[in-house]
Write a structure and sequence with these properties.
Elements (H helix, E strand, L loop, with lengths): L1 E2 L2 E2 L5 H13 L1 H7 L2 H10 L2 H17 L4 H25 L20
Antiparallel strand pairs: 1-2
Helix pairs in contact: 3-5, 4-5
């Protein structure tokens, strides 16, 4: 399998796909707890809500340790929350421009072919 010209055996590619698949498989449960309209309302208010969520999940992971399943679950929830924010930003404000100036000048979007 290839992802937009990148072989799945490229360093880290499998882990990224596995992480995204994990979130996709849990979307029904995630959207029950965090509805799209609620996420978008938080996004329109600014980033404070999201910062608090990120801090909460990382603090929990730190407290519980990555050696524990609960600590790793907290990291997974942080990741799912990040994707929720990204999706909300895209719905609310639109996608980033392909010629946007910023930190990552050569970002490649990965899609399954």
């Amino acid at each position: 399998m290839r992802l937009s010209g990148v072989a799945i055996d490229t360093a880290g590619a499998f882990d990224v796909v596995r992480s995204i698949t994990w979130v996709i498989e849990r979307q029904p449960m995630i959207l029950t707890r965090f509805p799209i309209d609620q996420n978008d309302a938080h996004t329109l208010e600014g980033l404070d809500y999201w910062k608090n969520k990120f801090d909460m999940y990382l603090s929990r992971a730190d407290l519980l340790s990555l050696d524990s399943p609960e600590g790793r679950q907290a990291v997974a929830e942080h990741f799912a929350t990040s994707l929720g924010l990204l999706a909300s930003v895209w719905r609310t404000y639109g996608s980033p421009a392909s010629d946007a100036k910023g930190y990552h000048q050569n970002t490649t979007v990965i899609k399954v072919e």
